Amino acid sequence: MDKFFRMAGVLLAGLLAQACSVSPPPDTVAPNRTTRQMVMERVSAVVVTDQGSLDRWVNRNFSTSQAPGDADGGSAAPITPDGYFLTADHVLAHMADRNVFIIYGQGGRLAPARARVVWRSEHDDLALLHIPVKTPYFYEWTQPDKWLPEGTRVMHGGIATGFSSGDGKLGTTLAPQGGLTRNRRFKIDIPLQPGDSGGPVVDAYGRLVGINSAVEFLVPMETAFFIDSEGNRPNTRSIESLIRQDRLRNGEG
Within 13 Å and on the Cβ side, how many CA atoms surround 203? Predict the structure, then answer.
């Protein structure tokens, strides 16, 4: 019983300290050319299809005539050097009895690899995928014990508009991650298009903030007005734990 109260005291003290702390001012440094190059090197697509291979389509520079006509998909973010990716769960909404591929940059070219679903959460709109490929270009998370204040400059790396939309700002303050922190939704002022879902949201230094999820428009009678887009930031330690467990199950730990 004493051990329980000690643990509870530590957790409550941590929560109280977080609640009483004050967010610092945002980092207003904008993503530069180096950050944009970093994001380009990590561009990744998720394709859900009945097709058994995407090699012909990819090898012919994504020719429309070779494109799988039944494909669904979106974007993804590589988060380890050994093939683990995060995407949005709704990107996999129609994956039942179909194949999931990730198209990832390898040695200066894009190549498809069959993906395995490690974990997914419809509630959090997040999914963890794995491909049996080395992924030397991957994202490091922003430090989980640091504030990400509203107004922090960000950009996104979705395959539809990630390289043409410019940068924007975080519309939600993300407090330091605690032991009980779960998935957190946040706003960004960058419009997303179909295909951007599941892609990375990064800070000015190319560090991963979270994953693209949705876009919100105000739709009056004649014209739709963009309001904001939404992303998800999981508990990074929970994701790391899922990856460790999966490596052990597959003899890679």
Answer: 21
Residues 153 and 68 in one domain: no
Hey, what's the torsion of the CAs at 128, 196, 38, 253, to 10 degrees? Answer: 10
| Contact by Cβ (8 Å): 133, 177 | no
189-236: pLDDT as tens digits: 888 888 899 999 999 999 999 999 975 544 454 555 556 889 999 999
pLDDT digits (tens, 9 = 90+) for 49-107: 999 999 988 888 777 777 788 888 999 999 999 999 999 999 999 999 999 999 998 76
pLDDT per residue as tens digits for the range 164-181: 767 999 999 999 998 888
Which residues, listed in sequence order, are joined to residue 155 by a DSSP beta bridge?
A: 202
Residue 80 gets which letter from DSSP? Answer: S
Dist CA 155 CA 164 (whole Å): 10
The residue segments making up the domain with residue 87 are 42-138+240-249
In 143-252, the DSSP E strands lie at 153-156, 168-169, 184-188, 200-203, 208-218, 225-233
Domain total for the chain?
2
* Residue partners of 94: CB distance under 8 A and separation at least 6: 48, 72
User: How many angstroms separate the first and last alpha carbons of the chain?
Assistant: 35
CB 219 within 8 Å of CB 59: no
